[in-house]
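Hey, I'm writing a tutorial for new members on how sequence and structure tokens pair up, and I'd like a real worked example in the thread rather than a made-up one. If someone can provide the structure for the chain below, I'll link this post from the tutorial.
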Amino acid sequence: VQLQASGGGAVQAGGSLTLSCAASGFTFDDYAIAWFRQAPGKEREFVAGISWSDYSTLYGDSVKGRFSISRDNTRNTAYLQMSSLQPEDTAVYYCSAIRGPYEYWGQGTQVTVSS
């Protein structure tokens, strides 16, 4: 089982990035996908999630209206489109695949937003 998060980098405030989460080793279609982030010295924070069934989405309050989660089951990949990035969005971003008691995590990708 593997979740490979990628697409992080350094951007200026107001910029955009798209993160990818490539999955392998399990039936991607059957799992909800979520993005979390963790900034230095802070707890892990829920960012966004997308269901496996009807692709319904959920967002953390701090990213609503700026971030968009999607998935492409044909590519076993989920995405997080981030726009209007702010310095407070700086964190390591992790993707997770969840189905009932089963939960898989990727290794994280760093996003750094400068003012």
